[in-house]
Design goal:
- The protein is of the alpha+beta class.
- It folds into 2 domains: about 50 residues; about 50 residues.
- Helix content is about 45%, strand content about 30%.
- The strands form 2 sheets. Strands 1-2-3-4 form a 4-stranded antiparallel sheet, with no helix packed on it. The protein has a 3-stranded antiparallel sheet with strand order 5-6-7, with no helix packed on it.
- It starts with a helix and ends with a strand.
Length: about 100
């Protein structure tokens, strides 16, 4: 009788082991899925950080600000780094540049 009970108990443990393993594997899979989702969400955020913003200066010329880089946009659309100095926008803000970058 004891052998029969032990055999049943061992069979129950073996049968429960795959279910137990699956329970613990799911969070790892969920974590991988969350990490992938986080990376996908982070990518647009990184792109938004370097989004180009076109600004019209008080003299009518146009510049594009991309992150801390400032470029002057010519009539044909070509961009060149902004010259060193202070540049006043039509809205009254001043952009100070050195070597084509914003000086903070």
């Amino acid at each position: 009788m004891n052998k029969y009970v032990l055999t049943l108990a061992a069979a129950a443990l073996v049968a429960a082991a795959p279910a137990f393993a699956e329970e613990h594997a799911a969070p790892a899979d969920a974590t991988a899925a969350e990490a992938t989702a986080s990376a996908e969400v982070a990518a647009p955020a990184a792109e938004a950080a370097v989004e180009a913003k076109e600004v019209e200066l008080a003299d009518g010329s146009k510049v594009v600000v991309e992150g801390d880089a400032v470029s002057v946009v010519a009539a044909d659309g070509t961009k060149t780094p902004a010259p060193d100095g202070e540049h006043k926008a039509k809205d009254g803000t001043t952009i100070t540049t050195k070597d084509g970058k914003i000086v903070h």
